[in-house]
Design goal:
One of its GO terms (biological process) is protein import into nucleus. It comes from Phycomyces blakesleeanus (strain ATCC 8743b / DSM 1359 / FGSC 10004 / NBRC 33097 / NRRL 1555). Pfam families: HEAT_EZ, HEAT_GCN1, IBN_N, TPR_IMB1. It is found in: Cytoplasm. This protein is mainly α and about 850 residues long. It has a domain of about 170 residues: Serine Threonine Protein Phosphatase 5, Tetratricopeptide repeat, CATH 1.25.40. Helix 1 crosses helix 2, helix 18 runs antiparallel to helix 19 and helix 26 packs antiparallel against helix 27. The protein is globular, with a radius of gyration of 32 Å.
């Protein structure tokens, strides 16, 4: 059976035929990938074959070249590069030929194949003539289909390939894109493909954008595209302009004044919703950029420095023009609109909220008349728009400016919770949540508090959309009015309503499904109310804990009766919600949770023993971590039965978030049990060291592992000595890691890693010192000081890392005294102690740690 027939069978409605063909193709790919890939490329390029079969072959081929998972993607690349060079060259030529296909479905998948090969080969400096070939397809060939497919291929290449790899060929890529994007291009499909490619190319054309003439030409083409006869081209043009604003804000002043103000306002009034959305997004991007730049300017001012960039105040200067349009767009709702669908009115409200944060007080004057004239309008759209406008400006202006407005509006908003239209009530509930979160002082307990609580609790009986916002409002009230965890507060303004609110929420969660995530929201509200409860609500929290435990027990027992993926997903979500509330009950009750701790561990162990409940495992582990901290030494009786689950989590690097939580639990248990953790050390130390050296485990877990070594050493003292040599070697290796000066993501990671490293040293020093065995560390002191010296000279060192480093310096001085006098005479020691005490870049806690460390070192050097 030939390959074309096999692919035709994969499209058959006959399931048996489909499965058999798919199995044969998979077997073929495994046994002889080189021949398989060549046959697929030939089928893709075969003009005589059916288009559907060509498309299926192209998709199958592309999927052998790339994958979402990093490890799988690397395997695909290695397999491709291992093929004979002449075979690869033949396949690449066939892929390029396929771009000429008259049907766009085939041309599009051909472009994806070209891009998938390019993503592998271009970083290896292979296929050097690819970009020139694609440029010729666009600029020389007189074939509309070829132009469109080629521009799509360029877009895919720009999207998938590292921008640094393409930077050297940006001129050629830009030339090809501009050729298709110009107004002289009459075929709008070609122009659309060019504009999409432009969007994907913007990150690596920085050098082009820095040159005035090229930038002017690019902006002329982009602005011209907003006037295309095709609404799709217009929408992508505004999308490109938004990304240009994000990447190249500093160059935009002249273009804003000459064109973009008018064009974007025109775009927001466009009858096509796709165009409106992208034009609104342009102004949201402006606000995002200016907010970030203002924050940077404030930070620079605090540090006594000049800001690096100038804020052009585009949002403030355009306020009088864009605000009326945004308010008008708020009224363009649909009665039955899908919550998950991003609509013009949603985009307008988001933009208005960002605008308020960006321009502050001056937005109040124009918005208030709109609210006042529409909030009681007969048309529900105008009422809802008025409430949305009011809620959207509550963050940004000064609270003192907003308080009189909120005080005046609050009674009307509470009464509008009885509005006959669901959309209005939903927005009112959201606005009440915003008031609760941002302007809690406006909610006076003796005036509107009772009415507000009553309205929100009654809202739990309404439409699921309204329930979610009512829950959020109740959460905000709890967070703002209740005590923080650990604060001993006898009572709070919520206390007299506490039992009624939680009872209503528990009744709601017991009878509803999870439409619009309303059940999840209700459980989150209960968890928040538990966390922020005053002391006079403790008996209610105990009652909640028992109710939740009963429900969790019943839910775990029901697991075996569940069939169907949707039902299983709903059940897993329910179990996660119950565990979230239970975890907060444990944290709030602390040692008082011991009256049901046996039941809690029993149900969690049942849950962990069921592989079908893996999605709730992380939540179960978080509950165990909370129980460990609450019970302290009394958790000892649960360690042995819990150990297999903990080991399994550490041996599963694919679930790195679970692994991260498991490492944290080991630290919790160490702090709880102290020397009692020693019998379990051997197995867990081996697992931790293996994970630290694993190339598969996500890097975010590794700083936590380093810190955990310190927790273990501090807990077991001199019993840590057998692990000392291996751990010190690992710490020394990790201590040598550095980041490139321009790689900010890596700088943050290295700071976190080194902070874990320092915490490990601190725990080891303190642990050995507390058990009288500090002398065993003396051989490692020179390497520790070398590590500290390299950190002290790192200009990218964070405040928290500096504080940890100073703490280690002080601990070493306190532990070893005059033995380390020669090390503390190094120039870097005095420099970092001085810098940390006087520099504005460091917080008060770091300054205090520096003063303590200086005193310890002074004593050691006497």
């Amino acid at each position: 059976m030939d390959i074309a027939t096999l692919f035709s069978h994969t499209l058959s409605p006959n399931a048996t035929l489909r499965e058999e063909a798919t199995h044969k193709l998979e077997l073929f790919a495994q046994e002889n990938y080189e021949n398989y890939a060549l046959l697929l490329a030939q089928l893709l390029a075969n003009d005589q074959a059916d288009d559907a079969i060509r498309q299926a072959a192209g998709l199958a081929f592309k999927n052998t070249l790339t994958a979402k998972e990093y490890a799988r993607k690397q395997e695909c690349a290695h397999r491709w590069l291992a093929m004979a060079e002449n075979v690869r060259a033949n396949i690449k030529q066939l892929a390029l030929v396929s771009l000429t296909a008259p049907r766009q479905t085939v041309g599009k998948i051909s472009g994806q194949v070209v891009a998938a090969i390019a993503e592998i080969e271009l970083p290896k400096y292979q296929w050097p003539d690819l970009i020139q070939i694609l440029l010729d397809n666009v600029t020389v060939a007189n074939n509309t289909n070829l132009k469109q497919s080629t521009l799509q291929a360029i877009g895919y290449i720009c999207e998938a390939t590292d921008p640094d790899v393409l930077a050297n060929q940006s001129n050629q890529i830009l030339t090809a894109i501009m050729q298709g994007a110009r107004k002289e291009e009459t075929d709008q499909e070609v122009r659309l493909a060019a504009m999409r490619a432009m969007y994907n190319s913007l990150e690596f054309i920085k050098a082009n954008f820095e040159r005035d003439s090229e930038r002017n030409f690019i902006m002329e083409v982009m602005c011209g595209a907003t006037q295309s006869e095709s609404s799709q081209v217009q929408a992508v043009a505004f999308e490109c302009l938004a990304k240009i604003m994000q990447l190249y804000y500093d160059y935009m002043r002249v273009y804003m004044e000459s064109a973009l103000f008018a064009l974007t306002i025109q775009g927001m009034r466009n009858p096509d919703e796709k165009v409106q959305l992208q034009a609104i997004e342009f102004w949201s991007t402006v606000c995002d950029e200016e907010l970030a730049m203002k924050e940077e300017a404030y930070e620079a001012q605090d540090a006594g420095e000049e800001p690096e960039r100038t804020v052009h105040m585009f949002a403030e200067r355009a306020l009088g023009d864009i605000l009326p349009v945004l308010l008008w767009l708020l009224t363009k709702q649909e009665e039955d609109e899908d919550e998950d669908e991003w609509t013009v009115s949603m985009a307008a409200s988001t933009c208005l909220s960002l605008l308020a944060q960006c321009v502050g007080n001056i937005i109040i004057g124009p918005v208030v008349p709109f609210v006042e004239s529409n909030i009681q309008d007969a048309d529900w759209r105008n009422r809802e728009a008025a409430v949305m406008a009011f809620g959207s400006i509550l963050e940004g202006p000064d609270n003192e400016m907003l308080k009189p407005l909120v005080n005046q509006a609050l009674p009307a908003l509470i009464s509008m919770m009885r509005d006959p239209v669901v959309n209005v009530k939903d927005t009112v509930a959201w606005t009440l949540g915003r008031v609760s979160e941002l302007l809690i002082d406006c909610i006076k307990p003796k005036e509107y508090f009772h009415e507000l609580i009553t309205a929100l609790v009654l809202g739990l009986q309404d439409n699921p959309r309204i329930v979610s916002n009512c829950c959020w409002a109740l959460m905000s009230l709890a967070e703002q009015l209740g005590p923080s965890l650990g604060d001993e507060v006898p009572t709070s303004p919520l206390s007299m309503y506490y039992e009624g609110i939680t009872t209503a929420l528990l009744q709601f969660t017991d009878r509803c499904d999870n439409e619009a995530n309303c059940r999840t929201s209700a459980y989150e509200a209960i968890a928040t109310l538990v966390m922020h409860s005053a002391n006079d609500c403790i008996t209610v929290v105990q009652s909640i804990a028992l109710t939740i435990l009963d429900r969790l027990d019943a839910s775990v027992s029901l697991e075996s009766q569940i069939v169907g993926s949707d039902e299983r997903a709903d059940h897993s979500e329910l179990v996660s919600s119950l565990l979230g509330v239970l975890t907060n009950c444990i944290r709030r009750l602390s040692r008082d949770i011991s009256f049901v701790s046996d039941r809690i561990m029993a149900v969690i162990m049942r849950l962990l023993s069921n592989p079908k409940q893996s999605t709730a495992t992380e939540d179960a582990f978080l509950a165990v971590g909370a129980l460990t901290s609450a019970l302290e030494n009394d958790f000892d009786r649960y360690v042995e039965p819990f150990t297999p689950a903990l080991c399994a989590a550490l041996q599963n690097p694919a679930e790195y978030q679970l692994c991260f939580i498991a490492v944290g639990i080991i630290g919790d248990i160490c702090r709880a049990l102290g020397p009692g953790w020693a019998p379990y050390c051997n197995i867990f130390m081996n697992l931790l060291v293996n994970n630290l050296q694993s190339p598969v485990l996500h890097r975010s877990v590794k700083p936590c592992i380093l810190s955990c070594f310190g927790d273990i050493a501090l807990a077991i003292g001199d019993k840590f000595e057998p692990f000392l040599e291996v751990v010190m070697m690992v710490l020394q290796q990790a201590g040598g890691m550095r980041a490139d000066a321009d790689n900010y993501d890596m700088i943050d990671y290295v700071n976190t890693l080194q902070e874990g490293n320092v915490e490990a040293y601190v725990g080891i020093v303190q642990g050995m010192n507390s058990s009288g065995k500090a002398s065993v560390l003396l051989p490692y002191v020179p390497s520790i000081f070398q590590f500290m010296s390299s950190l002290a000279m790192d200009t990218n060192r964070s405040d928290s890392l500096t504080r940890s480093l100073l703490g280690l310096m002080g601990d070493l001085a306190e532990t070893f005294g005059t033995h380390l006098k020669q090390f503390y005479s190094a120039e870097w020691v005095g420099h970092i102690l001085r810098e940390a005490r006087v520099s504005r870049h460091y917080g008060q806690s770091t300054k205090e740690t520096a003063r303590w460390a200086k005193e310890m070192i002074k004593r050691a050097c006497q």
